[in-house]
UniProtKB/TrEMBL annotation:
An MF annotation (GO) of this entry: DNA-binding transcription factor activity
Keywords: DNA-directed RNA polymerase, Transcription
Full protein name: DNA-directed RNA polymerase sigma factor, sigma H
Signal peptide positions on this chain: none
A cellular component term, taken from the record's GO annotations: DNA-directed RNA polymerase complex
GO biological process terms on file: DNA-templated transcription initiation
Length: 191
């Protein structure tokens, strides 16, 4: 018997043993396809996936493939390769999805500290110079200086005590300005 016939026979035996619940046969079948697993792992790079993750996924796919494979139809190697490749492509698609781009661009706090990158302090925030819409432009034109300060306090840009001390007003005056601000916002933005 040739080596390929032995491999096919032992492969078929392993698949049958896996269908019967033999875990050792699964490990042996995965060892048989180790070069294929390594090739796919080297082709498809998935962020945060290490060798253990690839081996675990390859073993799960191998088990599912063996359970679902019909020994009378085709070659197991082609079936397994297709399933493993499709799984790798799905992982890459998931990793590269648009909504996950922010995750790729983010860095850990430890990295930020090491590179002397400080997080943004809310005191650096400022009101946009160009209004986002006509309604906002109309609203800001209708606000008094006191109401603008009440808005800045509400947004967390200014501290309430600082506004009270700088404008020399009472807390009640600031609360009334906030109330007028809310009414003007409702009139302007909701109409």
């Amino acid at each position: 018997m040739k080596d390929t016939e032995k491999t096919i026979k032992s492969e078929a035996e392993l698949i049958q043993q896996i269908k019967e619940g033999d875990d050792e046969a699964l490990i042996n079948l995965c060892q048989l396809y180790k070069p294929l697993i390594n090739k796919i792992k080297n082709i498809y790079h998935v962020r945060y996936y290490d060798n253990q993750d690839w081996e675990q996924d390859a073993m799960i796919i191998c088990h599912e493939s063996a359970i679902g494979f019909d020994l009378n139809k085709g070659k197991f190697s082609s079936y397994y390769k297709t399933r493993l490749t499709n799984h790798a492509r799905s992982l890459v698609r998931y990793d590269n999805a648009y909504r996950r781009q922010a995750l790729k661009q983010s860095i850990s706090l430890e990295t930020a500290k090491k590179n002397h990158i400080l997080p943004l302090n809310k005191s650096f925030a400022s009101m946009p110079e160009i209004p986002l819409s006509e309604n906002i432009a109309i609203l800001t034109a209708r606000l008094s200086d006191l109401e603008i300060n009440a808005l800045l306090v509400g947004l967390g840009i200014k501290e309430q005590e600082d506004v009270i001390n700088n404008l020399k007003i009472s807390q009640l005056t600031l609360a009334r300005a906030r109330s007028r601000l809310v009414q003007k916002m409702r009139q302007t933005l909701l109409n």
